[in-house]
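R.M. (postdoc): so does anyone remember the format we settled on? I'll just put the C-alpha cells first.
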C-alpha cells in the first residue's frame, strides 16, 4: 500500500505584536507577511497579546476593504466612547482622556470633530498652502546646500527631520531660534509610539508634552492680545457664523497635533521614497530627464513607502464587519502598508514606478479624518524631489540604510546616508 506523504504543517498566521515593527522579521520585510494575510485571511481575526482583555478585532489588508472602512463615519475614534479595557483606551494619550473638550482631531467623533475640523480648515486651506511654495523651496535649497558641502551625510537627521519642522514653524509664525527646541521635543515624543519604552524614555516624552503645552499657552495668549499675520493667529481667531472660537485647551491640543502630525510622517516618507527611487536607477534617470515627474513621483513615494503603517477604527456596537461578528469597542485595524500594495488595485504593486501617479493610495487615510496636512506634505515632497533632480543629479546612496527604530505603526529609516553632487 502506498504511504501518503503527510501535508507540511502550515505556519500559523502572524498576529498582534508579530504584525508590528517591534517584531524584527516584520520590521525587515513586512510585505511577505502582509501579502500572505491578504491572500489567505483578508479579514484576519486579530488578538493583541499585550491586551488580552480587549475585544478581539479584525486586521484588514485589502485596498477595497480599507477604503470602505475609512469612508464609514459610523466607526468611532474617541476612546472615551469605547468600553473599559478596549485597545482605544489602552493606546490613548492622557491629554485626550479628559472629561472636558480637547482639540485633538484624531480622537474626536461626530459633532465635536466637525466643529474643530471646520474651524481649523478655514485657516489651513490648500490655497494658503500653495502660496507658501517659494518659502518651502528656499528652506529645501538651504538645507540641501548645507548637506552638499560634506562628502556624505545622513539624509534623515540633516534634511528629512528638520525640513518639515522649519516649514510648519514658519507657517505658524514661530521664531526660527525656537526650532532646535521644537526638534528636540518632536524627537522625544517619538517614544509615545513605543509601548515598551524605558522609564527614562517615558520621562522624556512627558517632559516634551509639558514643554510644548507651556510654549503654546504663552503663544496663544500673545496672539489673543495682539493678532499677527500667521497661521497661529488665524487658528486662534478662527470662528464661524455657527461656531464659537476654540477654548485654550482645544487650541493647545490642536496646535500640538498640527505641529507634530507632519514631522515624523513627512520625514519618513521622504526617506522611504528617496531610498526606493535611488534603488531604481531607471526611475531616478526618468525624473532627472523630466523634473515635472516630481508630481506623480510624490504620489508614488506615498503609495510605495507610506510612513503610517496602520490606522484603527472602533466598532460602535456589536455588529458584523465584512461578514465577521465583532463586539462593541473592538478595533478594526487597517493596514495602509498592505492596502497600497494590493495587486487587485495596483499593477505590479511592489515596483516603484515614477509615472504611476495614482492618488487613490491610502497613505493619508480617508473619510472624515483624512489628513488635514496632505496638501502641505505633497508640496514638501514634490519640492524635495524637484530640487534633488535639478540641482543634485549625482545624488547616490553611500551606505545601506538603517531601519531599526522603536516605533509602532510608523515606518521609516533611522539613518540614510547619501552623497549630493
Ligand atoms: C507625508 C506626510 C503625512 C502623512 C503620510 C500623514 C498621514 C495621516 C493619516 C494616515 C491620517 C489619518 C489617521 C486616521 O484616520 O486614523 C492623518 C491625519 C491628520 N494629519 Fe496627517 N499626514 C502627513 C502630514 C501631515 C501634515 C504636514 C500635517 C499638518 C501640518 C498633518 C496633520 C494631520 C491632522 C491634523 C490629522 C487629523 C485629521 C482628523 O482627524 O480630522 N499631517 N495624517
Amino acid at each position: 500500500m502506498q504511504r501518503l506523504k503527510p501535508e507540511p504543517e502550515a505556519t500559523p498566521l502572524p498576529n498582534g505584536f508579530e504584525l508590528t515593527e517591534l517584531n524584527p522579521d516584520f520590521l525587515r520585510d513586512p510585505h511577505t507577511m502582509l501579502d500572505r494575510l491578504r491572500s489567505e485571511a483578508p479579514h484576519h481575526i486579530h488578538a493583541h497579546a499585550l491586551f488580552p482583555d480587549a475585544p478581539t478585532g479584525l486586521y484588514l489588508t485589502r485596498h477595497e476593504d480599507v477604503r470602505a472602512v475609512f469612508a464609514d463615519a459610523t466607526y468611532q475614534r474617541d476612546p472615551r466612547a469605547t468600553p473599559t479595557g478596549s485597545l482605544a483606551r489602552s493606546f490613548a494619550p492622557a491629554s485626550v482622556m479628559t472629561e472636558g473638550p480637547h482639540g485633538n482631531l484624531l480622537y474626536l467623533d461626530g459633532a465635536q470633530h466637525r466643529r474643530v475640523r471646520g474651524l481649523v480648515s478655514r485657516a489651513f486651506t490648500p490655497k494658503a498652502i500653495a502660496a507658501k511654495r517659494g518659502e518651502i523651496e528656499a528652506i529645501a535649497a538651504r538645507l540641501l546646500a548645507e548637506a552638499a558641502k560634506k562628502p556624505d551625510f545622513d539624509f534623515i537627521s540633516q534634511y528629512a527631520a528638520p525640513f518639515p519642522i522649519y516649514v510648519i514653524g514658519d507657517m505658524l509664525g514661530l521664531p526660527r531660534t525656537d526650532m532646535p527646541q521644537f526638534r528636540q521635543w518632536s524627537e522625544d515624543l517619538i517614544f509615545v509610539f513605543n509601548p515598551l519604552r524605558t522609564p527614562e524614555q517615558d520621562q522624556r516624552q512627558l517632559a516634551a508634552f509639558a514643554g510644548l503645552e507651556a510654549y503654546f499657552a504663552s503663544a496663544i495668549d500673545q496672539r489673543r492680545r495682539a493678532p499677527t499675520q500667521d497661521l497661529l493667529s488665524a487658528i486662534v481667531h478662527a470662528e464661524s457664523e455657527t461656531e464659537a472660537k476654540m477654548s485654550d485647551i482645544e487650541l493647545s491640543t490642536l496646535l500640538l497635533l498640527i505641529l507634530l502630525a507632519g514631522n515624523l510622517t513627512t520625514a519618513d516618507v521622504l526617506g522611504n521614497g528617496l531610498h526606493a527611487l535611488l534603488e531604481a536607477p531607471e526611475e531616478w534617470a526618468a525624473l532627472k530627464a523630466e523634473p515635472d515627474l516630481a508630481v506623480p513621483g510624490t504620489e508614488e513615494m506615498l503609495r510605495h513607502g507610506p510612513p503610517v503603517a496602520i490606522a484603527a477604527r472602533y466598532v460602535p456596537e456589536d455588529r458584523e464587519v465584512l461578514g465577521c461578528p465583532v463586539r462593541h469597542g473592538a478595533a478594526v485595524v487597517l493596514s495602509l502598508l498592505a492596502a497600497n500594495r494590493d495587486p487587485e488595485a495596483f499593477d505590479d504593486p511592489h515596483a516603484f514606478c515614477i509615472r504611476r501617479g495614482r492618488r487613490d493610495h491610502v497613505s493619508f487615510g480617508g473619510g472624515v479624518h483624512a489628513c488635514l496636512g496632505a496638501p502641505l506634505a505633497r508640496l514638501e515632497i514634490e519640492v524635495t524631489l524637484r530640487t534633488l533632480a535639478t540641482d543634485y543629479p549625482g545624488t547616490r546612496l553611500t551606505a545601506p540604510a538603517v531601519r531599526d527604530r522603536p516605533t509602532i505603526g510608523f515606518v521609516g529609516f533611522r539613518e540614510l546616508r547619501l552623497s549630493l553632487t
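R.M.: ...and that's the designed sequence above, right after the C-alpha cells. Also worth knowing: The radius of gyration is 22 Å. The chain has one domain: 24-419.
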